[in-house]
Amino acid sequence: APSGTALFAGDVITTGSASVAVMNFQSGTAATLSANGEVALSGGTGSTAINLRKGAMAIRNDSPESGRVSVLGATVLVRGEAGFPALCRIAMVGNSAGIFADRGHVEVRGKGAPVVLSPGKHLQLGPGGPQAAGQLAGKVANAIPEETVQHPGQTAELPLKVADPLVWEDTVRTLKTGRVRIALLDGSFLNVGARSVMKIVKHDAQ
User: How far is CA 200 from the centre of its chain?
Assistant: First the structure.
């Protein structure tokens, strides 16, 4: 596929060990597929969807219309805002995928509520679905004041107490002699000692 090759819905693009493919779509989305990658295209004119099958890719979208990338059963929407392009990177490793929001509006839709990733944030997808910023992880089972939580996308730290819910990407901080015990949804527990900071990133059952 030399430069200038036209692309159509139904096409499959595969890169070798020393090749990169740069694709420009009529919708305003540009995609760069790294080496040893593969994508399949679907949709019609102006609404092309990209299905990332393996490898890594970078997405840039200058348009207010969302560019769409499907990966592991989820759909990533990338949309420019206020005249600035959106930038997003997606990488697949084995049975999991990482989605990294660099700039603009990046939204992930799968099972459950949609997740909007702030610039600089990331989300991990696995066989069990997304473990995302903003998705419920567990709750506080026991606490000895003082402790705080900083939710993803927020700058302020809020007081934390027993039975408060916690979500993925929360940052829990214990102050002075404070300690906290967190019950995750899978039945496991996290114990945070005094004067500590812990970020709840993800859970891997294995």
Answer: 15
pLDDT of 111-146, one tens digit each? 666 788 888 888 877 655 555 556 778 889 999 988
How many of the other CB atoms lie within 10 Å of CB of 148?
17
d(CA 195, CA 74) in angstroms, rounded, equals 38
Under 8 Å between Cβ of 172 and 195:
no
Amino acid at 107: E
CB 100 within 8 A of CB 90: yes
Token pair recorded at residue 131: 């473990």
In this structure, what are the phi and psi dihedrals at residue 158, rounded to the nearest 5 degrees? -110, 150
CA 83 to chain CA centroid, nearest Å? 23
Q: Which two tokens stand for residue 156?
A: 């302020």
What is the model's pTM? 0.62
